[in-house]
Amino acid sequence: MFFKLAKAIFGTGLVVGAAFAVSPSFAGPDNVGAAPVGGVTSVPYGWVDFCQRYKGECENPGTMPRNIDLSAKSLREIERINRWVNKNIESVSDMDHWGVIDQWDYPTDGKGDCEDFVLLKRKLLAEQGFPMQALLVTVVKDKNNDGHAVLTVRTDHGDYVLDNMTDDIKGWKQTGYRFVKRQSQTDMNTWVSIGEPTSAPAYVSR
């Protein structure tokens, strides 16, 4: 029922066309660039467990990397979904929600923590026609060195971040986070390191 409601709100079909334009909640395209991706690294347990419960969501053959053409229309759609999910999902910890430290899931009951926000945004954006190869679940560390999950959106203007902590869509450098790892563009079940090597957080929970 939850996904039917979301689909009714957002409709279907790829949003394309129109020249790039900056919107109020968008940081702008200048000097964003792409996050420096390294080699293959460990897959978060939360993703492995999620895939065991949602097998059809994680089965994909090798694919070619694709970025999103950041047109005015595509930007509006990304912003709309980001704001809608942030507004309509109640932020609760996995311990309060499920009685476990870390569980990745779709927030079908309207509740979830950071990775649940990410998974829903990713699903809704993909249903709008955005390429899954450009919608990458990403693990970061915040200023307190705690684990957090965000959605990296790869575009022809650089890597931008959708975050349940803010409605603003920021370039990856502007978030203040230490980027750890994310899904590969060629295989969602392969994860790659980002930037200088650092230990991965045991779990993500904000």
Question: Can I get a quick summary?
Answer:
By secondary structure, this protein is of the alpha+beta class.
Structure notes:
By secondary structure, the protein is of the alpha+beta class. It has a single domain (2-194), classed as C8orf32 fold. The protein is built from 6 helices and 9 strands. The protein has helices at residues 2-10, 45-53, 55-58, 72-88, 94-98, 114-127, and strands spanning 37-41, 90-91, 111-112, 135-141, 147-155, 158-163, 166-171, 178-183, 191-194. Strand 4 (135-141) and strand 5 form a beta hairpin. Helix 4 (72-88) packs across helix 6. 37% of the residues are buried. Residues 8-25 have low confidence and may be disordered.
Beta-strand content estimate: 15-25%
Q: CA-to-CA gap between the ends? A: 25 Å
Biggest pleated-sheet summary: 7 strands, antiparallel
**CATH architectural grouping:** Roll
- Rg result: 16 Å
Number of separate helices: 6
Spatial ordering of strands, largest sheet: 1-9-8-4-5-6-7
The topology string of helices and strands comes to HEHHHEHEHEEEEEE
* Uncertain parts: 8-25
How many discrete structural domains?
A: 1
